[in-house]
Amino acid sequence: PAQKPVAPATTNPWNGANEMAGFVRKTSNGEVAIVDSATGEKRPLHKPEWLGYQANGAQFAELSDADYDSIPTAE
Predict the structure, then answer these.
(1) How far apart, in whole angstroms, are the C-alpha atoms of residue 54 and residue 46?
(2) At 21, is the pLDDT very low, low, confident or very high (cuts 50, 70, 90)?
């Protein structure tokens, strides 16, 4: 069976297999995205959406611009 995506409120953006899952933030401009653990693709979050997740304890992994940009964007 296919793996289910990590719940958006996760506080750990890295799983044991060192694959990204959860929230990431780009260093230069503060853009926050959620990374789907099943696909490895990111989806940018709008500020109100991110503030809602953050209010529930979500945290992000701060990534360099190059690392953030290397994550494919979901279409």
Answers:
(1) 12
(2) low
Residue 38 contacts residue 5 (beta carbons within 8 Å): yes
DSSP per residue over 42-65, as a string? EEE--HHHHHHHHHTT--EEEE-H
Phi-psi region for residue 74, left (φ > 0), alpha (ψ -120 to 50) or beta? Answer: beta
For residue 50, how far is the Cα from the chain centroid? Answer: 10
For residue 55, what are the CA distances in angstroms to 30, 40, 52, 67? Answer: 17, 24, 5, 26
User: How confident is the model over 28-68, as pLDDT tens digits?
Assistant: 999 999 998 888 899 999 889 888 888 888 888 899 999 99
